């Protein structure tokens, strides 16, 4: 803009003209404007238009995975409050309706008309006795006469008559009579004038009302005269407010092709708006004022202005400097907007109230479309600019678009409402949460969609606006079961909650809409504790019922101060759970110049939560962004705010960062006046940021939630599924198996059967259940090794068919079985298709230990005899029992003082309890139960994108966490699994890459330990708490304990933080067919034979032995020439046995003949069940021979049984024989019961708890997980130096015509290569590799089998592991084993490892 023109405007204008440099920040512009403003600065009203960016929790997404556990821990902790600061004593302040008074009003005073009238105050009662009319007195006898105003006139007549009678009787004379007459006349005249005045006022009032309603609108010249003078004073203030906030608003609506928009000139002119007319409506409520105002803003209208006023007049003018393009290729040009005008008729309605500011609500709307005009010159400026409104059709297009936008908001009958009361009370911002809504989505009935491949999930909306949350996707099912709890932050319970059922697809991220259910949240106000349970919501589409959605809802309001009738305030109830509101106001000195484009990123507990928009070309951005998040435990909230320079054609640059704990922020923010110094490489940048804490008492969550995602509940029992068979499955050649799904977690699965439409399994699986509403989905799927398994059909098992909920006052509630065994033969169905096939199975319920809820009894005992109970806790993560279905929680054992100690002899099921001598429930005596595992976090030495699996006595995962990325993976998830026999049971945690499925063996590390040791650790912590006499939180585990990961990814160490719980089963006995000892590896060694039958003419035989196990030949020995008492050396083999109880073991002895056929010499067998084979022990057996005429003698064999989990793996085409070991490297180590868990798997706290086990590593308890040190090494007495000898013996099952050779890497030894064996799939090498090592140092062993040719070398398979995963000196010094090569189906390699200590 021309400098001379601007200077002329400044010299002649009555109101300031604001001109700014292009690169000035809003703060600098504000300071410049405020120089012309007297008095206080502009109030900050930015939050009026602030919008909410979404809701979440600090431990994950809004999904609140395992939220109940976190809340329970937070509730047990002491609430941390900011340290109160010393303040000067201030006098007590008394207020009336918001106004300060010197002293409290006495109750016996009568003040105001309301204290003397029966009419109610239209503005509402103030609840002050002196202003309210007291209630009428209660008479014992009803009064006979009640005075009325009309009696006054009649009374005067009687008084006058009686008065003159007395005058006559007394004889006062004529003078007294004349005086009395004058008195009567005066009284009459006063009353007559009073009557005339009141009548005239009533008539004038009615006439005025008629004039207001029927006459033309009245003029408001007096108001316009006031505005003319007031505008010259107020315009600079209004301009300053616009200047300060315009950048904050423009950044939200800036088109992508624009780099920045800056104000360089701004003025609203010297002529104010005028009120042309006002029309008032009288037919409204006593507390309502309604008027129509005709308002005009015509700054160019010069009518009635003097010559001096014309010379000083300034028109509104705005000059925007708009920059196009990005970075150095951008350019800036000015855009001029001037000569704005406006005219419209606005209806304004005020609702009044008694309290200050006496206006409760203001409503405004345009009664017709307003008229407006402007001049827009995008190029050329004021001198050569061209008004774009001259383009035909553009002005009308802009006008129509404006009406289309404003119409729904404030064109009659739509009104714009502004709640003044909420604004002054701080509740105006609708984005501020005033409560938390917890929604548990259980399941949906069969979806009648008519389509195939339904993958349903539920989305949550308020008033059909922005999506707030959604459940996980249940794949390929028309009967979805979620059992998930989601959280939504609410401003009020006024909105309508929409639950939209959708199905995911590949074309649209939000999926396809199937149906919608609605729920009016106001109904929760009518419910006890704002909660509704087992609610069936109809899902409708075009008025047709598609399904029914089963949900629970519970609303938790924000805890707020409560005002007493006497004016005193009760402080808000404190809580460690609540809503955290973070407001990022502004920054200063970000960078050396104003060419940076900063944006901020807020991380909470290491997870990205919020990101601000990018502010262009400023080093002092004013963000003014507020974000809210549901915090479950504020004591563990760590906040990091980083600022980054967004660069168009290069990498973004770091500008600064700030970190701090929430408690420290709340402690010091007022002291720092909300300013915080940033850490930066350059300069001294600062940030203004504030936090607001709104506590929420989230009690009652135990009544909600499923067992998987969302809230974790203590288990109520275990369902034993026996899967017998399926019939008439759809499709052709399938490899079907059954999996049990709870929510989106697969809790159990059977083996897959090869190529069958009518598979038979005969397997038993156990699934913990947590609520009677927890329905389980039984799915039959087709196994595929190289692709995703295909669902063949599913059915829903409703738990209420098997169990019932029992309740008893004073004890609580528990689940009991309706029948011993429930036999089912359910039809299978696919999503959107008819039923195909059936599944026959049975279900049996075994309850977990349940103790009565003694909270009320304990309170009574404390009051009467002052007994302080002692709570003891385990190392587990088991949450507190649900009030809906109270369960025994082994982490809590109420132990009154010995004086009045009363221990229940039975639980709620009537089952006898066992106690230790120190009166603790003897957990170790129960070998079967449900173990709870909480995975807190994993710390790696390298970046990883991974998830965790929980495996308990199975090579199939029973739980899978969400996928996280980083070096520190904060999972914070809890699950459980059933333990059959704690003596054999193992718990394993596997960390897997995100891009690998459960079918892949690739891991980033794993950990395992025996269940027996874990249970003893839990019992030990209970005993410690009892001995110390301390009160332990109900859910202690606290931070858990750190353990070292085995074979972690990358170099160095990695660790995992875990905690455990255990709930025993009282009435369960392990079936021998299901025992963990029933499955494993049978090692057979052929020793000798004696007194064999002579088959040759020489009186001898050439015997050899053939071993047949389960009908399949597993081994044929070498023949020994010319002997009847042969002795074999080195003839041994291993075979996996799926079921030892049902296995058959047969031997056949033959006489070897080179030309003629072999002649049988006899056969025999033995059973493997019972005590015939002892676990982990080698025993010799003489098997007598029979089956051939004249047979004599016996064969001596040595059998060793190693219980171990086995799993059949399938290649891309066929199943591999079950006679080969199918365990993974992790499974071979973790679930090999012949070897105790060694120090490498237990560099944690279990050793100090188990004094009787000297094979475990010492503990390192991590009291502060943010500064945790790595796990310690094994104790010195377990560290040994020595020599490892590795024997490469042979291989088998290699693929193709190959020339195998083995490349060996052992510790620091350079690669060793064996000799090449030509054209063999079962080569033998018998070569040896040696290296020196120490047991406290990792020794990696790599066996790489290759196909060696003259001109190329191919890979055949490999085995890579740590040598200490196979041998564990001093316990296990030697290992002779066949190891499966990877990938699956590549064959096996036979090695022997010997460790010799120096």
Write the layout of secondary structure elements.
Blueprint lengths: L2 H10 L5 E2 L6 H9 L32 H10 L17 E3 L2 E3 L49 H20 L3 H41 L6 H33 L4 E10 L6 E8 L6 E10 L9 H6 L4 E8 L6 E22 L6 E8 L4 E7 L3 H4 L9 H17 L5 E4 H6 L9 E10 L11 E7 L4 E4 L10 E10 L5 E8 L8 E9 L10 E11 L2 E14 L4 E2 L5 E2 L7 E11 L9 E7 L2 E5 L10 E10 L6 E8 L7 E9 H7 L6 E3 L8 E10 L21 E11 L8 E7 L2 E5 L10 E10 L6 E7 L7 E8 L5 E6 L3 E6 L4 E8 L5 E13 L7 H11 L63 E24 L6 E2 L3 E6 L3 E7 L6 E8 L11 E6 H18 L12 E4 L10 E10 L15 E11 L12 E7 L2 E5 L15 E6 L6 E8 L7 E9 L10 E7 L9 E10 L21 H6 L15 H4 L31 E12 L7 E7 L5 E2 L10 E11 L5 E9 L4 E10 L11 E7 L7 E10 L1
Antiparallel strand pairs: 1-4, 2-3, 4-7, 5-6, 6-8, 7-8, 8-9, 8-10, 9-11, 12-15, 12-19, 13-14, 13-16, 16-17, 18-19, 20-21, 22-25, 22-29, 23-24, 23-26, 26-27, 28-29, 30-33, 30-39, 31-32, 31-34, 34-35, 36-37, 38-39, 40-41, 40-42, 40-43, 40-44, 40-47, 44-45, 46-47, 48-51, 48-55, 49-50, 49-52, ...
Helix pairs in contact: 2-6
Low-confidence stretches: 37-55, 61-65, 86-90, 705-710, 855-900, 1031-1036, 1209-1224, 1238-1243, 1247-1277
Mean pLDDT reading: 77
How big a fraction of the residues is strand? 35-45%
Rg from alpha-carbon coordinates: 43 Å
Q: What would you call the shape?
A: elongated
Structural class: alpha+beta
The count of β-strands is 63
Helix proportion range: 10-25%
Sheet with the most strands, sense and barrel status: 9 strands, antiparallel
Q: Report the total helices.
A: 15
Q: Could you give the distance between the termini?
A: 92 Å
